[in-house]
Amino acid sequence: QSYSHRLQHDMYFLTSTSRLNEQVVDKIVLQLNRVYPQILTNEEAEKFRNPKASLHTRLSDLLKHLQKKGDRHCQEFYRALQINAEQLFNDLPSRKILKTPDPTEIDTDKEQYMLNDRGPVFFLACFSVAAGLALFWYCCNSEAQVIGRARRILGFSPIIIGRHVRSICMLYLEDMSRN
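Structure tokens predicted for Caspase recruitment domain-containing protein 19 (179 residues):
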């Protein structure tokens, strides 16, 4: 979307009830007057800063004048507006349209979290199943050396596995080592 179309879209928003005060409009006009290449001539700047005319009229005339001059002039107006009234610049209707995502576009942030939306309970359940399978594999192996290693691991894990579960596992391992 060209800047002149955006300015036409934002014109009502900018000229409506006291969105821009007189000081901000004067700063914007002065900035447009001093930008290289000069967007507004000295005469035009004086016309748009004339305190005898109402602010609404001056601002409407300025916006229409910039639209007639072309896209580059409108772009410089938006730059001056961003510098002098950033909050208002961010609230412009054309900015909100630009910020809305295209429905056909893939949102990579959303896609990244889509795989991880199951939460911590799912993670703990998967981890418990994996740990149980590993423990079962070590315990079912007939080598006594593996059972001794499993006993050492279970002996040092009172924090990870509850006290009652640990004692049951230790009893099971002792029974397995005797047989």
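Residues 117-146 form one domain.
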